Amino acid sequence: xxxxxxxxxxxxxRPMTGYDIKKHVKAALGTVTNASYGTLYPALxxxxxxxxxxxxxxxxxxxxxxxxxxxxxSGQSELxxxxxxPATTDQIRREFLLKVYLAKGMEKxxxxxxxxxxxxxxxxLLKSLREEKQDLHDPQQGWVVDYALSVCKAEMDWxxxxxxxxxxx
Amino acid sequence: xxxxxxxxxxxxxRPMTGYDIKKHVKAALGTVTNASYGTLYPALxxxxxxxxxxxxxxxxxxxxxxxxxxxxxSGQSELxxxxxxPATTDQIRREFLLKVYLAKGMEKxxxxxxxxxxxxxxxxLLKSLREEKQDLHDPQQGWVVDYALSVCKAEMDWxxxxxxxxxxx
DNA sequence: GTGCGCATGTAAGAGGTTACATGATTAA
DNA sequence: TTAATCATGTAACCTCTTACATGCGCAC
Lengths: 169, 169
Hints:
The structure is a homodimer. By secondary structure, chain A is mostly helical. Helix content of chain A is 66%, strand content 7%. Chain A folds into 2 domains: 3-84, Arc Repressor Mutant, subunit A, CATH 1.10.10; 95-168. In chain A, strands 1-2 form a two-stranded antiparallel ribbon. In chain A, helix 1 (3-13) packs across helix 4 (73-84) and helix 6 (108-134) packs antiparallel against helix 7 (139-168). Chain A binds a DNA duplex through helix 3.
């Protein structure tokens, strides 16, 4: 998904340090992406080299200076161009689904265990998403949470149908 | 998701060549993974080295011999071990969702365009999934298709809600 | 004679994760 | 004093994608 545009998009809102970006992503986009420092810092350096972002060193009392990045004109137009393009469709790429498909090699009880396990996890995720919905940073985060919520609910229903079907067999 | 177990799982059903695996994946697991030759062949070599699969060269008339891989005892037990473990939860990692989140930087019309675009794509996917459901190779594929169908429907509903909300604003 | 299906592979590179390395401040 | 938060980075590694390279047989 290229973290390039994630960074550009967040910097379009306000200038930030790499550290700020990481925190913001974790707080508001945890369901969408992870963005480790090993991705973020090199990406910022590259964007800077290419002139899509600028850096300003801000001195601090007692601490080494921090690097605040801000998006440039050129970065802005690149971002706009990307936003206007339709998103590439991505697979459902779920390890869980692969296990379900490969379930022919499993005992019925093992399959039921797999499903029950997944049901619990999905329930927990659902709960945390509902909590996240309580205090949001911005309306866009609400949309993302709603999306995740819809997908999660759909998965729950499917799991329950599967359990009934497998249990009956 | 490691294609290692995908290969092991398919070979557990019946011996296959790398080419067969590719075709089978495309036909039955297209929504879950892609598996290019660049992944498949090296993975098969590695599995062979480690003794999880065996190879048999089958001569053909007029053509060079093909390599038919079959799973070994050791491969079987590795597969079973993996199947028994709960699947790791994966993110929703959708480029589309990121665009939605970054929509603050967009004009209202651009956002509506993004949504409409996505709606069409999802509709098309839904249609092809329904067709896929008509002629299935095995019941497991049916489960996977059902899953994809559920998730797609959830996405459709969400898109429509979003469109109504954004349109009204 | 052109293109598709069968069949196997490699190489370069993109993109990402994990763990390591460093070091100051502040609150419990 | 111990842990968390602030803050920046690198190096090794893994996985996967794309594109290339090869070559036969068969049907249209």
